[in-house]
Design goal:
- About 10% of the residues lie in helices and about 35% in strands.
- By secondary structure, the chain is mostly beta strands.
Length: about 475
């Protein structure tokens, strides 16, 4: 079977959506060259995948080389005017399950990022920061003053001295065991210093990591009540990293909000603090939406979504102690044909090797070899009559569709081991490049032993539910502008 793909001019390759927030002062670069952006995102994705794989098989994220003894040179970055805090005094969140916590999402594409940014208010009084939304990691962290080594971000750094609710976690606090030290424990936490601050180190890739002090702080989020009205609510004692040395591909963001399954994630901490399972859902609007379109991340029970008759569910696999949200693929379909891919390709081993995760922090979808080669060949076999373009590596196949108003492309879907099927619209697995002249398969391959990942590009215009209470993933087609 084939689907008709209407070609639309796209100004930026990964323009998922852009939001306007009155509390921010954006300075986006609207002249991101499509081909370069695509290459950058793919390279970052592949680096991230290698890192996730290493974290699984090594079961640690530490480095014995000291990062705390580096020369403390004051940051030379100039501060920008501080954003305005919420005008209305926030209320304390009581954990009432009849309410929902809501945060605004925006695309990072204008900053050269393939991830989504989430609006978070931190400290007392609360100040606004944009953080990367990441379901593939746990630690919440933000760039902090003094910032000795930091990347460029939109707006000022977080300064603990400006907040009445900031508290360091000491080395002797049991919570210090939840993070990895940047140095051998004997050097990082000296027993004779009773109030020594707990240091942390967390890495994401060869060039992406954060080091600093482990602490607790008050986070303020928007809460939507059953009557539709919203207001700011306070969540106290959220564990987070106050990062003084931060490197990597976190363009424009102030830090990262982890939503993984581990104990440090924001979702897990809400559960521990208030006794609820705290499922969450989001809906990524299509990539060519204009700047007036908004999207939201919702924490809390969503009965309307759970009762949606079109909602599909597939179970999470692996233990709940895993950071990642694993799902189990049985087969893949192209053009209505089930491809001959060994089920062993999709297996998650007892050692935690392989498997498939759903991840908001990875842009494209990546399948382990040899599944990717089989999928790619199936598309090439079924797509005829279009000139193949070879100049957009690493994406393959790519086709010249200049002058073609409507292109016919095969259907694509994933079948899970529990029988659930995820059928994708064509715009979720083919991407337009160079305006309307080229389209490419938005799927890449990884080494056989690595993770397979369903990235955020394939999730657009689906409402995605992480049902942590029942350990399952829900998904339903949705015009996300209507959520």
């Amino acid at each position: 079977m084939v689907l008709k793909f209407s070609l639309i001019v796209v100004f930026t390759v990964f323009h998922f959506f852009t939001l306007e927030a009155n509390s921010k002062n954006h300075n986006p670069n609207h002249n991101v060259e499509p081909k370069k952006s695509l290459t950058d995102f793919a390279v970052r994705d592949l680096t991230r995948i290698q890192t996730l794989h290493k974290r699984v098989i090594e079961n640690k994220n530490q480095n014995s080389i000291s990062r705390m003894q580096k020369t403390k040179e004051e940051s030379k970055k100039s501060y920008r005017p501080r954003v305005v805090s919420p005008a209305a005094p926030p209320e304390y969140f009581t954990g009432n399950y009849s309410s929902q916590l809501v945060a605004t999402l925006e695309s990072g594409v204008s900053f050269g990022s393939g991830e989504y940014f989430i609006d978070v208010f931190i400290g007392t009084p609360p100040k606004h920061f944009s953080m990367i939304l990441d379901t593939g990691s746990d630690l919440n962290w933000i760039q902090c003053v003094p910032c000795y080594v930091c990347f460029d971000q939109n707006g000022p750094y977080y300064d603990p001295k400006d907040s009445f609710s900031f508290k360091n976690i000491s080395c002797h606090d049991s919570r210090c065991q939840l993070v990895t030290s940047p140095d051998p424990p004997s050097q990082s936490c000296k027993t004779e210093e009773e109030n020594q601050v707990c240091p942390y180190f967390y890495w994401y890739g060869d060039s992406s990591n954060t080091t600093g002090d482990f602490a607790v702080e008050t986070f303020t989020v928007n809460l939507t009540k059953p009557n539709g009205k919203s207001g700011f609510k306070i969540v106290e004692n959220v564990m987070f990293g106050c990062g003084h040395w931060n490197r990597g591909l976190f363009r424009g963001a102030s830090g990262l909000l982890g939503l993984g399954r581990g104990p440090l994630s924001f979702a897990s901490q809400l559960q521990n603090l208030y006794g609820h399972s705290f499922s969450f859902s989001y809906c990524f609007v299509e990539r060519n939406s204009n700047s007036s379109v908004s999207s939201k991340l919702i924490f809390g029970e969503n009965k309307e979504l759970l009762n949606n008759p079109n909602m599909n569910f597939t179970s999470f696999v692996g233990g709940k102690e895993n950071t990642f949200y694993y799902v189990e693929i049985k087969s893949v379909m192209v053009g209505g044909e089930v491809l001959n891919i060994s089920e062993e390709t999709w297996n998650l081993s007892e050692e935690g090797v392989g498997g498939t995760i759903i991840d908001s922090g990875t842009t494209l979808t990546y399948f382990a070899e040899p599944a990717y080669e089989i999928i790619k060949e199936a598309f090439m076999k079924k797509i005829k009559g279009y000139e193949i373009v070879e100049s957009f590596s690493p994406l393959k196949p790519c086709y010249n569709v200049s002058g073609i108003e409507e292109m016919e492309l095969p259907e694509f879907g994933i079948v899970f081991s529990d029988g659930a099927v995820w059928d994708f619209p064509v715009e979720n697995y083919f991407i337009q490049i160079e305006s309307d002249e080229v389209v490419c398969l938005a799927i890449l391959g990884t080494p056989k032993s690595a993770l397979s990942i369903i990235g955020n590009y394939q999730q657009q215009n689906f409402q995605i539910l992480y049902d942590r209470k029942n350990s399952r993933l829900g998904y339903v087609p949705k015009k996300c502008t209507e959520v």
